[in-house]
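Rotation project, supervised by the postdoc (A.L.). Task for the rotation student: set up a whole-complex structure prediction and record inputs and outputs verbatim in this book. Inputs entered:
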Amino acid sequence: GQVEVLHWWTSGGEAAALNVLKEDLQSKGIGWQDMPVAGGGGEQAMTVLRARVTAGNPPTAVQMLGYDIRDWAEQGVVADLSETAKAEGWAEVVPEPVQFFSTYDGAWIAAPVNVHSTNWIWANKQIFDELGLSEPTSWDELIAALDKIQEAGYVALAHGGQDWQDATIFDAVVNATGGIEFYKAALIDLDPEALGSDTMKEVFDRMAKLRTYVDDNFSGRDWNLASAMVIEGKAGMQMMGDWAKGEFINAGQTPGEDFLCFRHPGTQGTVTFNTDQFVMFQVGEEQRPAQIELAKSIMEPSFQSSFNVVKGSVPARTDVSDEAFDACGKKAMADLAEANANGTLYGSLAHGHAAPAAVKQAIYDVVTAHFNGEYDSETAVEELVNAVEAAQ
Ligand code: GAL
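Outputs recorded:
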């Protein structure tokens, strides 16, 4: 058999992780037809998917995030994995917030390959050592560190000006500024009071402050090129989900020696997550066995370990040991378990796990316009309330 897989894993770290899956399938005699669509966060991939499904020719499996999965399920074009899920006991080992996106109307329609989170900062250890910096634990300490890095002549904050990257920082700043309950009220419940609050104005003030630490060439830069700036010692920090770790690892770097990973100050104990899932589409009977084998392979505990070690994410099952993971990965697994147990685990807005696509896009537009100086913070708050209302 053969599977055709649509995905957006085209950076060095992402491709290395995908290779683990390709090789695993190859060892089982299943061919891999690659359908990569570059573009972090997957916006472009979703456009290509729409065209394929409209043409009546969907791929076997598609990498997908959060509410997009539910949207496609609603269209009645995805395949049912329930029999396999039942036989393999997925319901017992996949965390409930992850399962929410793998199932629709009681049926399993996707195989979750990982759990990422967005409230991370990646830092260059040599620059931190040279300037006598330690991991900041508050907003003030973060700003003091960014100032020091900038004064020393480095780019303080490596960033790519793309809407989903701006929104990834916004996820963390909303959480850090108002706390995780505020994050939930504003970005998951879409409560107009939270969206229009003074706290939200402070969030935008902080975003404007962070904007002063990026370099002049940030516009349009891909996220992995921003990671490279930290890896190469040109920039001090990057605020990005833990797929960034895949780039550091792919460059031969080691956490604690070459780079540091820490939670965005003020968000420790909470996790804003996204889970990459492979959604199976309705394909011809002859393709079905390979499709089922793909789903089963993705869910194997040993595969979840070897894949996520390379990807920077953590397993989408609770029964996988953290033994093979580096220090950042072990922390990520412990943080996820803690947040899941404490009710401080929520979906990432930036990566489609907090609100459906239309609302996500509406928030992107406001956040990016403000980040680029089109709105002051007060206007951004007003625009946010209106845009979210109009998008629902
Ligand atoms: C995220 C995805 C990650 C990573 C990142 C950048 O949305 O969940 O796996 O690929 O985009 O492309």
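Student's summary: DSSP finds 19 helices and 14 strands in the chain.
Supervisor addendum: Residues 12-27 form the longest helix (16 residues).
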